[in-house]
TrEMBL record:
The lineage of its organism: Eukaryota, Metazoa, Chordata, Craniata, Vertebrata. One of its GO terms (biological process) is microtubule-based movement. One of its GO terms (molecular function) is dynein intermediate chain binding. It comes from Brachypodius melanocephalos. This is DYH8 protein. Pfam families: DHC_N1. GO terms for cellular component: axonemal dynein complex. Residues 5-166 form the Dynein heavy chain tail domain.
Length: 168
């Protein structure tokens, strides 16, 4: 029982740390007012990397051994642990899925940033791709994500126009 208590303490520390990561990941992002759509992709790539690292750690043999010992001891801490494991898995899947969908827009980001203000040729394809993401993505099709993406696309268009005016 002494070993079980020590392992439960370790799992409770991990639980607290993982909860903190989850809370921080859900906080509102602070971004510059003129940030472009590439920042959205970078945000999700970073988040995917963080959650995948956390999943790798959670699924390591060391952690699995501790969890199996606590399962054999019928520890009460495992209920919270399983919930957090599920939350981390969902967050990692969301980030991975969002990166996959946002990469379909990546081909438009360069032309959008480097085009002249008459960038109309890229807009129909861009909007079609955004529509596809909204209709098919299980995670990214929320009002919050779409608003953030459209804001960044608009910012990029404005930045492109400003650059064009300053160079002309």
């Amino acid at each position: 029982t002494e070993l079980t208590e020590k392992l439960e303490e370790v799992v409770m520390i991990w639980t607290k740390q993982i909860r903190q990561v989850l809370v921080e990941s859900e906080q509102i992002r602070r971004e510059a007012d003129d940030v472009g759509p590439s920042a959205e992709l970078e945000h999700w790539k970073s988040r995917m990397s963080s959650f995948n690292s956390l999943l790798d750690e959670i699924r390591s043999s060391r952690v699995k051994k501790i969890i199996s010992i606590l399962q054999a001891a019928r520890s009460k801490t495992l209920k919270q642990w399983k919930e957090l494991d599920g939350s981390i898995t969902i967050a990692a899947n969301e980030a991975k899925d969002n990166v996959r969908y946002l990469y379909t827009l990546d081909k438009f980001f360069g032309p959008l940033a480097n085009a002249s203000p008459v960038m109309m040729e890229h807009i129909p394809s861009l909007m079609s791709t955004v529509c596809m993401i909204y209709c098919t993505s299980p995670y990214y099709n929320t009002s919050e994500h779409m608003t953030s993406l459209f804001l960044k696309i608009t910012n990029q268009m404005i930045n492109t126009c400003k650059t064009y005016l300053c160079e002309g």
